[in-house]
Design a protein that fits this description.
The protein is α/β, with parallel strands linked by helices. It contains 5 helices and 5 strands, in the order βααβαβαββα. It has a single domain, classed as Dehydroquinase, class II (Rossmann fold, 3-Layer(aba) Sandwich), CATH 3.40.50.9100. Helix 2 runs parallel beside helix 5 and helix 3 packs parallel to helix 4.
Length: 147
């Protein structure tokens, strides 16, 4: 595992529309808001965050590969890829540091197809249903455990 103090926050499809898309489910915060709040938490603990979003599975896989050399931990909200992507799971299995899965909505209270997440099989922790505050919870946990 790298000696980096960088936490990679990876986001899947449609999260670029956070704050605009279905605010009744996902709230009004944007990814920029998430990055700013997580960055402040990380900075106070001597860490930094790098936020990435892609609507493409391969882009997320490549960022996980990059994290292998650059990050001490990953927070991932794979969005719809949670329920479909063995490729993302396989990539996460190559990462030696902690991985935390984050979902803005409670996926277990939604449609049945959302109840299973491939990523959960690798995740060291899963947060679902706390809105964008879930990202902050993940970053705090990483800072506490890796400090």
């Amino acid at each position: 595992m790298p000696t980096s103090k960088q936490i990679h926050i990876l986001n899947g499809p449609n999260l670029n529309l956070l704050g605009k898309r279905q605010p009744e489910i996902y709230g009004t915060d944007t990814l920029a808001d998430v990055e700013a709040r997580c960055g402040a938490i990380a900075q106070a603990a001597g860490f930094e965050v790098s936020l990435f979003q892609s609507n493409f599975e391969g882009g997320i896989v490549e960022q996980i590969h990059t994290a292998r050399e650059a990050a001490c931990a990953i927070v991932i909200n794979p969005a719809a890829y949670s329920h479909t992507s063995v490729a993302i799971l396989d990539a996460l299995n190559t990462f030696d540091g902690p991985v935390y899965e984050c979902h803005i909505s409670n996926i277990h209270k939604r449609e049945a197809f959302r109840h299973h997440s491939y990523v959960s099989g690798r995740a060291d922790g899963v947060i679902a249903g706390f809105g964008t505050a879930g990202y902050e919870m993940c970053v705090r946990r990483i800072c506490e455990t890796l400090a």
